[in-house]
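User: Hey, quick favor. My workstation is busy. Could you predict this chain's structure for me?
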Amino acid sequence: MKLSDHPTKAAKEQGVGARLLRKEDARHLQGKGNFIGNMSMPNISEVAFLRSPLAHARIAATRVAQEAENVFLRDSLTGVLDIVADSTLPSYQVSAMPPLAHGKVRYVGEPVAMAFAPTRAQAEDLTELIEVDYDDLPVYVDVASAAAATSDLIHDEWKDNVFVSLSADKDFDKLAAQADVVVTRKMNLSRQCMLPMEGMAVLAYWDHQADQLVVYASTQVPHLIRTGIAQFLQMDQEQVRVISPDVGGGFGYKCVLQREELCVAWLAKTYKRPFRYLEDRREHLIAGANTREHHYEMTAYADRKGRLLALDAKITINGGAYSVWPFTTGLETGQALGNLPGPYAFQGYRCTTRCVATNKPAFLPYRGVARTGVCFAMELTMDALAREVGREPWEVRLENLVQPEQMPYVNVTNKHFDSGDYPASLRRALEMIDAQGVRERQQHAEPDGRLIGLGVATYTEQSAHGTSVFAAWGTPVIPGFDQAAVRMTPDGGLEIKVGVHSHGQGMETTFAQIANEILGVDVARIRLVHGDTGRTPYSTGTYASRSLVMSGGAVSRACKQLLPNLQKIAGHLMGADSWLVQFENGMAIAGDKSIPLAQVANAWYLNPQLLPTDVDPAGLEVSVGYKPKVDTGSFSYCSQAAIVAVDPGTGSVEILDYVVVEDCGTMINPMVVEGQAIGGIAQGIGTALYEETPYDEYGQPLASTLADYVMPGATEVPNIRFDHFETPSPHTEFGAKGVGEGGAIAPPAVIFGAVNDALRGLGVEVSQTPLTPHRLLEALAQGREAGLAAASGKQGAGQ
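Assistant: No problem, here it is.
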């Protein structure tokens, strides 16, 4: 059902469903955020890294000038282990990532040495006193050359350059043989960077009072970083405390242990004083975070109406030089294999997925992990199938989507879709975009000579997937229960402690709304404590659209567990039965009696003589663990549609309209949901039209500044229109589903579908991101040549 069907919910002031302004925004808008770059400490030293200028070479010799102090090579880092991300996947090959390169370098920008000094500039000057002799090795930039190599492998002990291969086959041969129509297409996503506003940042020092290593890290996963630092520095975990302050964006880049974080932590442990490293933009673009580089070969087998019977797919992922801890390259590979079918109900499936090691930075999980690629491939295949059978692209989709009466539905890769109406979301998107009006508009030439096109896509977002899923991928750390602690303050406020950490999701607001819904405490009186392993319960952290479902669910359970004790005390103070007591707007109410919630808390903390004799000694503080009833994930879904204008003379693409119909179950805060979607769509537009990290044949990155790496700005992101369905999940608290990654999944598919629709009269299809003007003009030129060749062939045949 649509949000408009819930006028009372939309009008709520504070609880679940309220469009409440985010509490955290005030400090950021006033420049009062607490970021690692703003921190100062006495005697702090800044760290700089010497990075490899070559993509693949042996380190023959290293010389450090005699006058250079505080310079470190790999052999200097005593007691530090290489970062190893193991996996139980049968075909997986383990890569050991040294904190500083040792023996050889495997990509341009790999850290080879580090230095520290009072300022970053002085530290960089020290790195210039280091000379490294390299012996060149063959460079493997693309998956074809890397997979074909038989010697001088990226990791000498491997049998080949393939990280991992996965496959699936379910009833493929039987169902493919029944097909009337077969369509094959190839699609490619270019490599890109993540580019959060704040790059990697770490500050570490030794707390002599606690006898503890304290690491401030701009991370999404503070508890995981503590585990990793302790493991690879060979320390007990109670000796390490990780604090994540305000984080200026993460998008997946900050959910793995970075080697620079480990190096800075080692310095603080060794010298017992503070050290800091702040990644600059050039470092990030060259060596920081690479992602999205997928290659697809898709073959669809369907009946004459376009009903999909079977799908054959070959997916190759360019994984870079190392597998990252703790999620490994198996995460991207497994997600691609399992999520390719998307929201479609077909039964024949054959897929092979390979992640190939190359001389590029390590492939990292990025917003939408693999699903942006698989949605791109699947939706362009649906468009091609529609053209083949002569139907509208949305007609073929409606034919193939899981139907509402089939819910709950287990798809061909064993994904458990719990609820929703996928076709209705697509129909609503078509209504909002006025698909029929677009078709009528296309019958007449545009005054400016541009071509108009319409694109659509529907996808599912697997969110909050837990133990069984990650155990199947064999990652070093498996998520289990998330925990939350809630405590009433003596004057009636509330403190919430969770182990996840926000990097833009609005948790300080939405978690407070959950607590308000149950306990009636004013949101302004609710304080969220997160991002500190010394003060919060354990969680594997914020990733995979899991925080609201997992830790938010734990907050809900904790508040519900606190409720009976509050009711008992309040009922006693009012002389009313406890079961009659309700809490609203900071008041305890029983019939015509009421007292402030602060009076209830005061009795527990400061005036215990007023308590009932059989009060629960657990008091007004509760800690609980939570995970959903089904831990294979709650599935949000969404349909998006866009109208574009393509200029065949310049190759430019303008997005004229963009609509979103999303169902993430019960929305805690619709405004936060829309904000997440808008941010994700902006990133998806970047993937579709602008962002690319190209390399030359020697593995040299060709986009090392923002003059070369193009991102969408405010003028490139259109006004995005929303409608919401709310189909509560039967497995989660409040029926909520995750939504954080969703916006980034569909835009490349939607935009390319729209461009191909605009160009269909020219016989042109595009399928390589980003769709730059150069690529589009090249495709148009090839289309003209093909058309001329076809016309010439027909003429010759006629003669």
